[in-house]
Amino acid sequence: MFKLPETPKVAVDCIVEYHRKLVVIERLYPPLGYAWPGGFIDVGETAEEAVIREVGEEINLKVNVVDLIGVYSDPKRDPRGHVISLTYIAEYVAGTPKPKDDAKKVHLYTLTEAMKLDMVIDHGQMLMNALDHAKFNRRRI
Amino acid sequence: MFKLPETPKVAVDCIVEYHRKLVVIERLYPPLGYAWPGGFIDVGETAEEAVIREVGEEINLKVNVVDLIGVYSDPKRDPRGHVISLTYIAEYVAGTPKPKDDAKKVHLYTLTEAMKLDMVIDHGQMLMNALDHAKFNRRRI
Q1: B46·A11 Cβ contact <8 A
Q2: By the CB < 8 Å criterion, does A69 face chain B?
Q3: Closest residue to A43, CB basis, from B7, B44, B45
């Protein structure tokens, strides 16, 4: 039986629009600070399933995944170890945002407000890359 | 110290153009068949570094990574276990294609020929997704 080698860990992060605002969390655990909701992908689920599960667990929203906006794989990006983030944009389906699980607080920011935040790791860069993405801009947040 | 959880493993695959042909390998190890060159990302390297290393080790070409074309994360896609593929397109820089490491043979196919291949796992789908990608089509293989 082939034994799979050790690789970096893999997580998802997700930029969610909720009534023309972006949903930003304050993380409960290190790295502390402003972040997009997300978390580690479980063995046995797709990346899109992980987005839907994590957004539900963390900010109480049901979402549809719209598109992949980037892969963030710098070994030094996450102080906890080598974690690759697959970053998606998603659209709101149902629910009211409230902090659960790893989120201490949930904030709703306009795009202009979100762009001024000092976010954890490369989460500010994720928003910049989302702005390059046609399906994000077409929504005109 | 935070212990990173178990997640799926993460690999890269890469569609490389070489003198207006696509470089397809025949895999030496299961899953056997036609595939794009690629392999597991090492802890400590970026996804783009893994592409450059794996393409060098497997088909003896030096390449530049052009762009990400997709993430393939179905838990059942790889018979060896849950492996997420980050799939890239890359452009030829130097070297002569020859099989090394995990490649039994290296083939150079036109786009039309490559589209007729029965490739391993979802590697045929990767080519279809690459065709949706502007930076791939602009090269007019």
Answers
A1: no
A2: no
A3: B7
Whether residue B31 has a cis bond before it, omega within 30° of 0: yes
Cβ contacts of A44 on chain B, cutoff 8 Å: 75, 82
- pLDDT tens figures, B82-132: 999 999 999 999 999 999 988 899 999 999 999 999 999 999 999 999 998
Q: Is beta strand A34-35 parallel, antiparallel or unpaired with respect to A21-27?
A: antiparallel
* 3-state SS record for chain B: CCCCCCCCEEEEEEEEEECCEEEEEEECCCCCCEECCEEECCCCCCHHHHHHHHHHHHHCCEEEEEEEEEEECCCCCCCCCCEEEEEEEEEEEECCCCCCCCEEEEEEECHHHHHHCCECCCHHHHHHHHHCCHHHHCCCC
Residue of B nearest to A45 (CA): B75
Retrieve residue B18's tokens: 């070489």
Kindly determine whether residue A47 and residue B83, on different chains, have CB atoms separated by under 8 Å: no
Structure-derived torsion over alpha carbons of residues B10, B15, B18, B19, reported in degrees to the nearest 10: -160
Of B30, B47, B81, the CB nearest to A84: B47
Q: How far apart are CA B105 and CA B93, in angstroms?
A: 21
pLDDT recorded at residue B48: 98
The complex's ipTM?
Answer: 0.93
Search chain A and give the residue with CA nearest B30: A2
Q: Is A68 on the interface with B (CB under 8 A)?
A: yes
